[in-house]
């Protein structure tokens, strides 16, 4: 089960945070700070999997943004979640057309909505980009009208 | 609620404005900016205009991502969930997880809101279901269960998928909701064709198995059915995962899966699915050789892959092969992978070998890791090697002599931390204690290890361990080299009687080379003790040896250096013994103890009652006449004692000869591989050493000496 999904930049600023188990603000800030420091200290020759504070962490870097997933320590397929991160980025890229950090900052509710369509209750529920973006296209059409 | 004036609306800050201002604001002004923004949001979120409230909500989102506490907005957000505008409602539902937890009191209000939303269009309904999945607690899930169950039969797959995903949370929170409801959901899933809905169904089964594993028979048919026909990688990964749990509960299910696993393994190119299958096969399908071999081939590809993620996963998979025989099959690939791996992967590999090294691969493993240790991982490699050697009282070691003379010197040279030096010391003591006869080689060991100490810099560097010596109260610091030095000195001191004259002479010459007074100041008392033992031994065997003056000079230098009173007192005795070396000195010693000892101190006896019949005013010097009487009565016994001793010695010698005659010839030694590691050629063993793995130590070993040395450390 996924416990949290984060998008954090190199300066340690969180651009998107979705927690599937409630943590206080202080706990979140501490966790995010520690995770980004750990991810920044790793080189490209090292694997994208590590353990931190009882979570299994899978991360991937896209330009200046780190996409971080924290899961339970029980057996999970790390490779599958690494591919899920790529799927998420591709979906965001399809919607925002050449997505960057600023797109997520200025359209934070849409980024959250896309993520909610993909992950529910810590489980991946949809990976088809068309299916994921269908509701949000309906919303955009209704807004334009 | 209030209405913003036109003037206020002009100056209203949107999310974009807040973001731009935040990026340009300095760190010192950030708190002011945040406080001002929160104050604005508190006003705007109560506005009647939906556009204003929407912007306030977006700004709240942004502040939450920046690390600000927005729980004060709980009521406002719940309020917004029930408004008519969908965009506002959606924003509030997305923000709900930031302010609401399972203990929130506002959840009571959410029930009615959600019940209304479930009757709306599919987009609104799906957003509501997503929100419910995030914030549901026991009360909310119980009150909305019937509504969610109805939605599992909705015509839209989007709604069905999300309803099933919410059900998995409801069943986890309150397992009492499972009976009756689960069967209904399973019936619907059996007719389901949409992959996303099926994937959510499989996740539901995984959640149910966590809280109620005995319900597994309900899932068997549907899982098997889907494995045989599905092509979606995501769904197949979930199916293989749940199959693992089902196999552990129902082993007969394993046989059904062989055909499908073989097909999937051969057809798929997806690395994540391959990994899932290989993991499952390595753990549960060891008895099926063909499938196991195919999985083994893929695992070898993972271990040799350029991608560090796949290498890491390959190693992770190997930890689930529970036998060392299984690991031997992949040993070559693992060791190759070690050469290219990063620090963390190296730690994984070391852990594997710590668990699974045996007698067969012990030599290969030790030689490989000593050859390929680097600066970063050296301390971990040495720690692991010492663990492997000492595991289960040296269970992996079949040639203790080679271990002592070939591998241990190399390990000693590579030690660079205090922890490892202490472990190394324990290894040496254990080995020499459990293998009788190895002490004969202690001088060779000492020379090999300490040779580098003479060549390297005289100043001792690196982190140090601070120690206070109990009996002298001296404070000193030891680094890793000195810890090893002390332990070797002690071992040689214990073995002095077993060593030949040449060996003892070499040790003295070596100690002269070292700048011991400056570099090994903390070990001077140990060196002194060793020198004294060597001195006594040489005097017994060859009193006219040329090395004796050198030993005397060394001892003098040491005592000049040491300032402790108790050691100086002892040194007077040593000094006088060395200077005169005559019977007169011995007679003086005898006379020292021949005098009457003073009676017991009366003051000391005040607290302790003396035994009855004892006169504490009288001296307890033994009556000489009495001694003569006892002596005469035991004359016969005294005469027979040497004869008994001779007989016992003869028995021991014959037993040793029998043991030697029954030993098997040794295996061939691999000199070439060890050349870079060790220049000394391996000695041809003359006898085989057996390791004593009993709890008690062999006879002749003084446990107190070992305990004392450990206490000092």
UniProtKB/TrEMBL annotation, chain A:
The entry's keywords: Membrane, Protein transport, Transport
InterPro entries to which the protein is assigned, alphabetical: AP_complex_ssu, AP_mu_sigma_su, Clathrin_sm-chain_CS, Longin-like_dom_sf
Gene Ontology CC terms: endomembrane system; membrane coat
UniProt xrefs under Pfam families: Clat_adaptor_s
Protein location: Endomembrane system
GO biological process: intracellular protein transport; vesicle-mediated transport
Domain AP complex mu/sigma subunit: residue ranges: 1-142
Keyword Electron transport: no
Residues spanning the signal sequence: none
Entry annotated with the keyword Membrane: yes
Family (UniProt): Belongs to the adaptor complexes small subunit family.
Name under which the protein is recorded: AP complex subunit sigma
Provenance organism: Paramecium octaurelia
Taxonomic classification: Eukaryota, Sar, Alveolata, Ciliophora, Intramacronucleata
From TrEMBL, chain B:
Any GO CC annotation of this UniProt entry: AP-3 adaptor complex
Pfam families: Adaptin_N
InterPro entries the record matches: AP3_complex_dsu, ARM-like, ARM-type_fold, Clathrin/coatomer_adapt-like_N
Localization, UniProt: Endomembrane system
Alphabetically ordered keywords of this record: Membrane, Protein transport, Repeat, Transport
Disordered as annotated region, ranges: 655-713
Top-level lineage group: Eukaryota
Record keyword Transport present: yes
Main location per the UniProt record: membrane
Protein transport as UniProt keyword: yes
Residues annotated as domain Clathrin/coatomer adaptor adaptin-like N-terminal: 35-577
GO biological processes: Golgi to vacuole transport; protein targeting to vacuole
Family the entry assigns: Belongs to the adaptor complexes large subunit family.
Name of this protein: Clathrin/coatomer adaptor adaptin-like N-terminal domain-containing protein
Source organism: Paramecium tetraurelia
């Amino acid at each position: 089960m996924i416990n949290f999904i984060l998008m954090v930049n190199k300066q340690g600023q969180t651009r998107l945070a979705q927690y599937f188990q409630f943590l206080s603000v202080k706990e979140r800030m501490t966790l995010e700070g520690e995770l980004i420091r750990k991810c920044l200290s790793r080189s490209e020759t090292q694997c994208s999997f590590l353990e931190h504070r009882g979570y299994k962490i899978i991360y991937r870097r896209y330009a200046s943004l780190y996409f971080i997933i924290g899961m339970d320590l029980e057996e999970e397929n790390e490779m599958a979640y690494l591919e899920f991160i790529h799927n998420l980025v591709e979906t965001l890229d399809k919607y925002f057309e050449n997505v960057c950090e600023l797109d997520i900052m200025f359209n934070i509710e849409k980024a959250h909505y896309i993520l909610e369509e993909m992950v529910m209750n810590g489980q991946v529920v949809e990976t088809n980009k068309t299916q994921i973006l269908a509701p949000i296209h309906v919303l955009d059409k209704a807004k334009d009208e | 609620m209030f209405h913003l004036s036109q003037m206020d609306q002009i100056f209203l800050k949107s999310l974009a404005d807040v973001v731009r201002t935040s990026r340009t604001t300095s760190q010192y002004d950030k708190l002011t900016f945040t406080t001002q923004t929160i104050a604005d949001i508190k006003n705007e979120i109560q506005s009647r205009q939906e556009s204003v409230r929407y912007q306030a909500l977006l700004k709240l989102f942004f502040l939450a991502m920046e690390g600000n506490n927005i729980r004060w907005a709980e009521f406002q957000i719940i309020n917004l969930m029930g408004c008519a505008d969908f965009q506002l409602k959606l924003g509030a539902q997305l923000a709900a997880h930031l302010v609401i937890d399972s203990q929130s009191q506002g959840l009571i209000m959410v029930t009615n809101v959600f019940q209304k939303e479930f009757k709306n269009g599919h987009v609104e309904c799906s957003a509501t279901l997503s929100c419910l999945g995030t914030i549901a607690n026991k009360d909310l899930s119980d009150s909305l269960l019937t509504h969610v169950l109805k939605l599992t039969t909705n015509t839209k797959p989007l709604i069905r998928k999300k309803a099933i995903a919410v059900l998995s949370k409801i069943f986890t929170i309150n397992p009492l909701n499972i009976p009756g409801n689960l069967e209904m959901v399973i019936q619907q899933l059996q007719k389901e064709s949409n992959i996303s809905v099926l994937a959510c169904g499989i996740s539901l089964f995984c959640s149910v198995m966590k809280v109620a594993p005995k319900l597994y028979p309900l899932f068997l048919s549907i899982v098997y059915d889907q494995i045989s026909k599905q092509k979606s990688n995501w769904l197949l990964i979930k199916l293989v995962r749940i199959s693992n749990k089902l196999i552990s509960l129902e082993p007969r299910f394993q046989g059904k899966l062989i055909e499908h696993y073989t097909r999937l393994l051969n057809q798929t190119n997806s690395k994540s699915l391959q990994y899932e299958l290989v993991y499952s096969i390595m753990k549960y399908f060891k008895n099926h050789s063909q499938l196991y071999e195919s999985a083994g081939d893929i695992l070898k590809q993972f271990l040799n892959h350029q991608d560090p993620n796949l290498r890491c996963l390959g190693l992770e998979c190997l930890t689930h092969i529970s036998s060392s025989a299984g690991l031997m099959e992949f040993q070559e690939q693992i060791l190759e992978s070690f050469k290219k791996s990063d620090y963390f992967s190296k730690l994984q590999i070391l852990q594997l070998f710590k668990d699974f090294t045996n007698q067969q691969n012990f030599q290969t493993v030790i030689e490989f890791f000593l050859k390929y240790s680097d600066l970063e991982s050296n301390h971990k490699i040495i720690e692991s090697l010492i663990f492997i050697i000492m595991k289960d009282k040296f269970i992996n070691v079949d040639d203790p002599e080679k271990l002592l003379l070939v591998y241990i010197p190399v390990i000693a040279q590579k030690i660079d931390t205090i922890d490892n030096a202490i472990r190394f010391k324990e290894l040496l003591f254990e080995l020499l204690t459990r293998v009788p006869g190895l002490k004969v080689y202690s001088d060779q060991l000492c020379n090999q290890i300490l040779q580098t100490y003479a060549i390297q810099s005289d100043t001792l560097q690196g982190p140090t361990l601070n120690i206070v010596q109990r009996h002298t109260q001296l404070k000193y610091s030891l680094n890793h080299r000195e810890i090893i030095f002390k332990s070797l000195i002690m071992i040689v001191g214990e073995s002095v009687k077993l060593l030949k004259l040449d060996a003892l002479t070499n040790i003295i010459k070596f100690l002269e080379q070292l700048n011991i007074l400056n570099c090994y100041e903390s070990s001077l008392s140990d060196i002194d003790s060793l020198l004294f033992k060597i001195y006594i031994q040489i005097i017994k065997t060859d009193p006219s040896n040329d090395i004796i003056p050198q030993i005397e000079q060394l001892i003098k230098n040491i005592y000049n250096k040491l300032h402790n009173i108790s050691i100086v007192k002892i040194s007077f005795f040593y000094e006088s013994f060395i200077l005169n070396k005559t019977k007169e000195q011995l007679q003086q010693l005898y006379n020292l103890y021949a005098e009457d000892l003073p009676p017991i101190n009366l003051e000391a006896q005040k607290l302790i009652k003396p035994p009855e019949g004892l006169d504490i005013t009288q001296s307890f010097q033994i009556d000489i006449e009495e001694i003569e009487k006892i002596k005469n009565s035991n004359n016969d016994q005294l005469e027979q004692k040497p004869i008994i001793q001779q007989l016992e010695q003869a028995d021991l010698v014959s037993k040793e000869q029998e043991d030697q005659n029954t030993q098997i010839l040794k295996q061939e030694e691999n000199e070439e591989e060890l050349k870079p590691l060790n220049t000394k050629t391996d000695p041809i063993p003359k006898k085989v050493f057996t390791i004593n793995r009993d709890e008690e130590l062999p006879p002749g070993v003084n446990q107190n000496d070992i305990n004392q040395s450990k206490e000092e450390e």
